[in-house]
Each structure stands twice: as structure tokens, then as C-alpha cells.
Automatic annotation (TrEMBL):
Function: Functions as a recycling factor of the spliceosome, a machinery that forms on each precursor-messenger RNA (pre-mRNA) and catalyzes the removal of introns. Chaperones the re-annealing of U4 and U6 snRNAs (small nuclear RNAs) released from previous rounds of splicing, an initial step in reforming the U4/U6-U5 tri-snRNP (small nuclear ribonucleoprotein) that can reassemble into another spliceosome complex; this step involves binding U6 and facilitating the unwinding of the U6 internal stem loop, followed by base-pairing of U6 to U4.
Cross-referenced PROSITE patterns: RRM
UniProt feature, compositional bias: Polar residues: 842-861
Main location: nucleus
Leader sequence segment: none
Subcellular location(s) of the protein: Nucleus
Ranges for region Disordered: 529-601, 841-873, 975-1019, 1035-1110
Full protein name: U4/U6 snRNA-associated-splicing factor PRP24
Bias kind Low complexity: ranges: 533-548, 1005-1016, 1083-1093
Keyword Transmembrane assigned: no
Amino acid sequence: MANPVGEDNWVEFVDHQLREATDLEARVHVVETFQHATLAEPGSLKVWIAYCEYFWSLYTDCQPGSDAGWPAEDQQLGRETFTLDAALNLWQEGYEAVQYRLSDSHELWNRWLSLEMELLRRTATEAGVRRITHLFKDRLAVPHTTWDATSQMFSSFLSEYNRPAYESEMQQVTRNSKTAKRLYELRDQWELKLARAAKMHDTAALRTIMSEYLDWEIRLVKSKKDAKDMIANYKICLGLFSRALTGALASDEDTWLNFVVLVSTTHTDHKAGRSQVPSSLVPNMLDVLRRAVRHIPWSGPVWARYILTAEEVGLPFTDIERIKHAATDSAQLDRDGMSGVLDMYSAWCGYLKRSAMNPAASEEAVDVAEVGLPSAIEDVRHWGKRKYGEAYQGDPDYRLEKILIQFLTEKKDDIESARGVWEELSRVELHANSYDFWLHWYLWEMVVFSAARSKTRSPTPATLAQGLRVPTFATRVFTQALKVRTVDWPERLLEVYLKHCNDYELAETMREAHDTIYKTRKGVAKRREREAAVAAQAAQAAQQEAAQTDQPMTDVADASRSPGSKRKREATPSEHDGGNKRAKSETHAEQLKRDRENTSVWVTGLPKDTTQTKLKQFFREYGHINNIDLQKRDNSAIALIELGTPDDARSALLRDAKYFGDHVVQVTPATDCTLFVTNYPPEANEQYLRNVFKSCGELYSIRFPSLKYNTKRRFCYVTFRDRAAAAAATKIDGKPLESGKFKLVAKISEPMARQNRQGAQAEERELHVVNLPRGAGEEDVRGLFAKVGRVISVRVPRNMAGQSHGTAFVVMETKEEAHKAVESLDKLVFGNHPIKVEISKPPQQKITATTRAGSQEAPSQEQHHGAAGHRPAPAEIAARTIAVLNVPDTMTDARLRARLESASAGADLVKLVLHPTHGGAVLEYANATAAGKAALAVDGLEVEPGSGGGSGRRFRTGTAAELFKAKGERRVDRVDIPAADASSDSKKKGGGAAATQLMPPPPLALRRPAAQGARAGPKRGLGFVGGVAAAAKKDGEDAARKQDGVSNGVEQGAGGQAAGAKSNADFKKLFLGGGANAHGNTDGAKAASAAAADGGGGDGRPELMGRVSR
């Protein structure tokens, strides 16, 4: 084994040598081999322990009186070579190399310490005690798994050798080791997982956990949150890489690349002065890459980095050439195909090009590049033919040819030879079918044309048009490209071709171009029709196969319907049907359910000014688009595009790496990126959920369901930017929230995997019994129904006092027994009560949600209704009731209440009734004062500050009557549905709704809260009018709507003049500020309070204020 790779191979290799070492020279050679091993595996615990143990054995064997049997001369030379200091220094060197291997570094340290203790016992000296004390202190300052055992060993050592200083030394160690213990506690969970996997000999789990652990350490190093731990975290990260790269991940390419990037980034930060890590701690890049290519010789990116780093540090040409030859001599470079070969050769050709194009380059460097670049292209071609035969067509990105073209163009000024390279590439089907290739060739020709304008001699032929020079060769690229009938995106070539001719060509060429474009477009249209027909056939076949596979799950009603029959149109639930009818989208969920998760793609790298229209044009020929979720970033944009079918989504992937304007975009599938999340706290909003999932990865969007037809919904769909983040999010499934009150559910969304309902109610085994005697208990009911069949369970609902409601739910064993019980026991007299027995039906979905105050469900009679205790009149309820408008139909009552409480509008809230179908809620407060203050606080309040969904949207306040006149928002999350339906109402109103969206109107009714304790009397404040008392006697809504004598919110006197000139802002400041102005004057507050108490009619009941016109 000439070149061992890996710690086990090195130990075996050296062990074979030392067994044959019988003289001093051979033993010295073994020591030299161990030195090579520590250079090849610098963080290997096995190599260092074997090395130190062997060197210690050499030290003991050459001592006088040893029974090793060495010749006297070898013993004498050995004592000079293998000294005690050299042995102890080697142990220390080994410990320093592995001390941050948290889980196993104690193996070497404990062995070293035992030797030190043995020497101390032989000759106990004060210096020896100090030395070992120092070793203990240094060890206890380093985080490691056996820290407690090390501390106990130190305690025993002090008790034996330095008892007087025991207390002071232990206190000092405890203080100094706080950081070490804290750093280990951060990693304890990872170490436990690794230990558990190792104990179970689960190699796959060990590799997975180690990879996740490394990613966590890298993020910790990059975060740079805690500067004082920066160096310690970096050391621990290097120690973990040592464990991984000498253990389970020694041959893992991703792990080596992570390590290389970490070291490279640290060197870059050092050069820029951004790193606090000492340069002595950072491994040498060449050493790291030298080790990497020995462990993963099939990795082209690692070989490419090796060549690039060698060039960067200034190694001579012969050394870099030796690296290149080592790569080509490796039998594993093409293990994963030609990508590794191309990566390595691209780095080599890049080095040759840069060496030759350097202004200070020698003629030899230019000659080497002139010969080496074509030679490299030929070597790769032969390599590919040898591996794949004639099927190999070269590099899809033609990287080596690009380098050669640049060298010929810029350094050699040999335009014809460079053009010859393009011509040769165009004869390869792989490149000829790519529009990207033809555009790159065209751009090169235009660069050559622009550079040649200033020269007397140009490679572009001249024309006869009065000396006008045109880019003929660039035009020829398009005419040649359009002859290829299999180009993947001919539409783009036609577009650029026409633009080019308009900008540069003569009339004759322009006419010919129009002819060519016209004929080509007809051919392309026919081609697209053929492709669409093939795709439709494939989709139909896939649907038939899926239908055959899913046939047992088909609904009976659907199965009975003829495939060609028309489905009757169903009525849309009206605003006044009480929500008994289900939404059309819910009633036929099986037919209309959108499989977003399997029909969506990501589009990244878009320009910032991207629009939905441009995206629809970009994917126009590749499938039907249902929806586009476009988000703008700092200098770019990203889109999540939902297509009609999974086949359309697969077709859209063909647009990957294509030009979108001047940008090359990436199109990737969005499968398994969305989670179905439920069982979170009811008041949780989007920001709360983002905080829950913030550690999993980049979160793209959160989609809440509409509550219009079921207000009990509490789930959402969380979409992540990639599958890895979504997979990480599923790992917190079952996470306890709010101190264990809720157990989060987070699973990959599968909309097509809907399951049929199960349970006694769905199986028609549950009975609902009504009009039971109040004294009847579970056993009484069970005995009655046991006569019909086997009773599984009985439940009798009771109130807070434990009294029965007179109803019961009985579950029978079979459906037949349940129906038999209905026939036998319905209308039976039981305890002098004729009972009603029927099959239990699921509760109707509620279209409203009501919450009440926990401690005060209704205002007290003494406070609001006097001693008579009469029920409040409708006008009184209206006086302390307001409506909140513009509430999203995805906002639950708990979220709305939490938002009101955050704005100090929920203190005296008695009842909240949410009406998603009307886009708002009715709020009833304890008194009119609280209602008025709440109206001022809520009006204009942002719905959900900081969240993506509600940012910028604001609440409005009004009356209950205004709320019930309003219609809820109609959200259409599709771009393929015409907007005419959604905007029909606004058209009827002359576009007023559109203006409202841009600038919401002020509240139609503004409430002025009455001050508590104000005196009653005829005095009226600003904004109050006479005659309100009469209005209060009418219905509450009429009293809230009709208030005479008010203009623009200001009371008019007899002559029509305004009674005052205070603005709405003055009122808001007056009442929210406690009733005093900046000068401490309370006259205005007193007047308003008196008016509020008087209410205009002298009956002490506050009324609604007048309307404020816009």
C-alpha cells in the first residue's frame, strides 16, 4: 500500500512496517512514516494514539534494564534519539491536534495523563505538581464529553498532592470552565444523537446526523452573534470536521466541499480584515485540497479548486501540471460521468488562458496555451468517446471551447480560427438544438463587429450601401440557426433576429428576414400543435392510469355519473341562507380540488421589473397557468407558478436556464415544498407561524383558508423555498406550543390524498336522543337501548351545575342496529317523556363565530339599566355596539380579538361576533364610553402589521347595519379567471369600489364616548342634538342611523351656523388623553361629558354621534 488513504489504512500500513522493524534504522523509518500519516490525517485520533504509543515504547525500550533485547549500540543511539522530552512533547502535540474532538479526545488525554502521573509518582516534585495542575486546568477549559470525570480526577489529584490549595484551585477551575460547559451544552443534543446512532451501529443515521451537525456548526460560525465565542466555535467546528473526515464521512464529497469552502471563506475574511480567528488556526488551503483529492479523487470540483488554489498561491507551471496529471491518472475521475472530467479540464484551461493573457506573460506561456487548449479539448473528446462511444456529444456548456475562442479572439487576434470553433460546435446536434448556443455565437459576432469598426481591415465583408458596414456574419448566424428544425426555443431566435435586422441590416436583407420569419413561424406553430397533441395523449393516458389505480376510492355518486353527461350548475350560497348550503368549491372538492403542490414550479433569477404578463408569455407554449405568486427582492424577483396539470409543470421545466430578457432564469419543481399545518394556538397569526418555522429555512408564503363557510377552520399551508427546508419543518411535527397546551401538526401537504370520514357519526351508528327526563343518566339510557342491540357508548351532555340537558348521544355497534333503534324507540314514552330518536348528523358549519368575555358576559343591570332590572332596549345595545369593517375572511375571531387587545380596544369587550361573509365583526362593549374609545382606537388600525398578507390593510369602523349591507371580499387566487366577475360590483357603482381600494373612506359614523360621572341636564356638548331621545325609542339600528340636525359631524344652531369649530382630531385627542387639553383646561371635556350623559333627551342614555361626511 504505497499511498494509504484514511486513518484505518494508515494505521494498518504503519503496523505492517513496525512488525518488520528489527533495527534502529527501521524503527526511525517507522517514525518517519508516522509523521507522514499525521500530515495526511492531521485530525485522526487513531493515528496520533498509535504514533505516541509507539514513540513511548521506543523511549522505554532503549532505557537501561529494558528487556526489549536491543543491542547496546542501538540502545545508546536510541536514548539520544527517543528522549523523554521528545516523547512528552509528542503526546502534547497529539493532544493539541485532537483536543476539540468533543466525544473522543479524552482517550488520548487520559493516556497521556496516566504517563505523567506515573512519572510524578516516581519523583514527586513541586515542578511536576505544577505541570500536571496546568494540564488539568487547560483540559477543563476545553469542552468535552467527559468533563465531569476530568473534574473528578483533578479533585483527587489536588487532594493527594496539593491539599492546601484545593479550595482555591477548584473555585478557579469552576469559574474558568463556565464557557466550556456552556459551549458543550449547546451541542449536547447532537452528541447524544451521534452516540445513540453509533451504539446501534446505524451507519446511515450516523452519516445523516453528522451532516446536520456540521451544517449547524457552520451556521453558528457564520452567524458571528457572539464575538467572544468566535474562536472557540471555530476550533470546535474544525474538530467536528476532523471527526467527520476521518470517520463516517471520509469519502463524502459534500462534506469535503463544505470544509474547503469554510477554510477558503476564512482566508478571504482574513485578507479583508473581517475575521477575528487567528491565522494560525486556519488550515492551509493547499494541504486541505491535497487531502481532499486523495479521499474523493472522483470529484471534479475539488480538483478544479486544487488547480485554482495552486495558481493563486503562485506555484510554478510544473507543479500545477503535476496536479493536472494526477487528476487524469486517477481511474475514478469519470466515476460519476464526464462532469468531473470537464470541471477539472475547465480549471486547467482557465489557468492556461490566464497565464497566456497576462500582460507580462512570456512567449513560452502563450505557446503553451496555444498548444494546450486544443489538446485539452481533444483529450476530453477522446475520453468521452471511450466512455460513451458515439453517443457522447461534448460539454453542453462548451466551456473549453469558450476558453479557446476567447484566447484566439483577444490574445491571438485570430478571428477566423475562433469562428471555425463556433462552426465546428454548430455541427454537433447537442448545441445546434439549443437556442442559447446560437445567441452566444451571435453576441460574439456582434462584439467582433463592434471591435472591427475602428480597424481598417475587418473580418466583416463590406457592402455597397454607400459605405455602410453591417454585421453580416452575425446575420448569418440566425439564417443558419433557423435551418435547424429542432431548436428548443425558435420563438426567441425569431424575436432577436427581427430586432437585429431592424437595427443593423439593409432593406433587402430585412425583406428576406421577414420572409424567413413568416415561414418559420408557420412551421413552429405546426410543431407546437404536434407537441401539444402528444402531451395531451400522455396526460390522458396518465389520467386513465391514475383513475384505474384510484378506482376503489371513487365516490359512488361520481362513479354512477356518465362520463359524457353534464353536471348541473349548483346555486352559490346567498348572503341570507344562513350558511346551510356549502360552497360550490367545497361541495365538489373531489372534482375541483387543485393539486398545487404537484403542479407548481419555482422561477428564480428574474429581473426586478418582472410582471405576471411577462411570465405568462414566457411559459405560454408550455402549459396552462392557474396562478402566479410573484415576490420582489432587492435586485431580483422570484415566482411560484401554478400550472394546470403535473404534465404542464414538467413541460415548464424545459424553460430552465433560458433567457428571460437579459437574465438567465432557473426553473425548478416546487413539489414537497408546502406543509399542511394545524393545531396551533387560535390567536396565532402569520408572524407567529414564521417564528415557529424560522429555524427550518427560507419561508416563502403562508396561506390561510377562507372562513366564509366554516369559521371553525384552524389550519394553513406553509410554503418553503426548497424541499430541504420543508423536510426540516416536518421534523418539528408534534412540537408543543404554549407550554404544551397545543401539539403542532406539520406534514407535507397532499391535497389529492383526501380520506373519507370515519367514526360512528359518519358510519351512521350514532343516535341523537331528545326530550329525555332530566333525571335520566347514562345507565338509564344504556339500559333502554340495550334492548335493541349492543351499545358501545352513551354520552349525556350536562351544564355547569351537572344537570342534564335532556339529550343523549348513543353509539351502537352496527349501522343496522342504529336504524333498528330509530324504528323501535322513536316517540317511545320514557319516564313520562315522549323521546325523539334519530340518526346523529354532523353539525352544520358555522358562518359566524362568537366569543364572550370570560369574566363579564353582559353588562350588569345596576350599572346600565337601573334598579328596575329591565332588559336593555335595542337603542341601548346599539349605543354600546360598533362594527369593524374590512376584516379579511381568513382572520379568525381569536386573531381579531388579540389584535383589538393589542390596540387597547379589548378591555371592556363583552361579545365579538365574526361575520366573514360580510367582511367584518360586531363588537359589543360594557358601555357606550368603551365603545366610543374602541371606535377611535380601531378605525385606521393596521390589520396585521409586519405580515405579508395583511400589511397595509386597515380596519374601518361603522354600525352593525352598515356591516350587514356589506359583502365580504372575493379573493380569486388565479390569473386564468377573467376579472370581470370579480369587479362586477365596482362596475355597477361606477368604479367607486376601485377607488375605495386605493383610499378607504373614513368611518361613516363617528362615536363620541361619554365621560363617566358627568352630570345630567339640558346642557349639550358639541356634536349632540336635540331630539335624539325620541329617536332612541325606535329600533336600535334606526336610532344609530337617523340623527337630525347634523352637518359634517357638527351640530347646527337655529340659524344654521355651526355651534363650534372643533375637529375630529380634537375629539380624539380630548377623549384618549383623559379629557384635558394641553393647558389643563377641562371645560370642553365637561361639556362633552354632560352632553353624553344627557344624550339630548335627558334620559341619561348615550346615543350615537352624527355621521361624518367624506
